């Protein structure tokens, strides 16, 4: 792995509109929310607590929580503007099962949510490829600490398999990411499996998603 830059500031790779009440609108969320929700409804429990890492605009949080009212959704993002947008979306949607967004640095040994107990699932969407590899390590380490036995870590985005991209567009995207920051890039499922195993997480399912994305489902220990 190349040397990593210390700046772990979140990055948006798209243009986003912003409303007067500071809600941000993500074109990618508009495209991927429904396919992701279909998977979440199948794999998540009907009741429980979900932690979202890298909630971005907050649109996913309110969309998923609105469709699964018996789950408590805890969004988080290290970016202040993202948390502001998420708070505004929560107010706009009027949902009671979405908590105020938290500021979580996954590379920290403590995420500040340990006192809430174990989570049934941790969800991270389109995050680990626009962050240093240390972020992936921290995400799995935190999931190992904070998921209950049988809890799930779900990762959505582009991935490689055994060093190979699943589409030319993803190869070009990977090259563009590395040109922007050598510590970024599309992650290999095999590498993530090894990191997961070290944290007590096993890859349970690899789901093909639209536009050459995937959703990886890791399980913590035994149910």
Automatic annotation (TrEMBL):
Q: Which InterPro entries match?
A: DUF938 (IPR010342), SAM-dependent_MTases_sf (IPR029063)
Instruction: List the GO molecular function terms.
Output: methyltransferase activity
The family database entries (SUPFAM superfamilies) matched by this protein are listed as: S-adenosyl-L-methionine-dependent methyltransferases
Supply one GO BP term.
Answer: methylation
User: Does the UniProt entry include the keyword Transferase?
Assistant: yes
The signal peptide, as residue positions, is none
Highest taxon listed in the record's lineage: Bacteria
Keywords recorded for this protein, A-Z: Methyltransferase, Transferase
Under Pfam families, the record lists:
DUF938 (PF06080)
Q: Does the keyword Methyltransferase apply?
A: yes
Q: What is this protein called?
A: Cyclopropane fatty-acyl-phospholipid synthase-like methyltransferase
- The record lists the organism as Rhizobium pisi
């Amino acid at each position: 792995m190349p040397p990593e830059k210390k700046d772990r500031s979140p990055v948006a790779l798209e243009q986003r509109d912003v409303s007067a009440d500071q809600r941000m609108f993500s074109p990618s969320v508009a495209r991927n929310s429904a396919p992701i929700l279909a998977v979440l409804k199948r794999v998540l429990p009907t009741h429980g607590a979900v932690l979202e890492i890298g909630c971005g605009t907050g649109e996913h949080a309110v969309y998923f929580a609105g469709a699964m009212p018996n789950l408590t959704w805890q969004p988080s993002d290290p970016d202040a503007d993202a948390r502001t947008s998420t708070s505004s979306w929560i107010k706009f949607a009027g949902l009671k099962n979405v908590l105020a967004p938290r500021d979580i640095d996954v590379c920290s040994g403590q995420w500040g949510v340990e006192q809430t107990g174990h989570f049934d699932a941790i969800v991270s969407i389109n995050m680990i490829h626009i962050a240093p590899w240390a972020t992936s390590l921290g995400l799995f380490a935190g999931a190992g600490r904070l998921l209950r036995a049988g809890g799930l870590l779900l990762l959505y985005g582009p991935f490689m398999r055994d060093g190979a991209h699943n589409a030319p567009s993803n190869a070009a995207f990977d090259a563009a990411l590395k040109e922007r920051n050598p510590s970024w890039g599309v992650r290999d499922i095999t590498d993530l499996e090894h990191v997961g195993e070290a944290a007590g997480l096993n890859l349970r399912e690899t789901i093909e998603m639209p536009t050459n994305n995937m959703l990886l489902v890791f399980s913590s220990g035994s149910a």
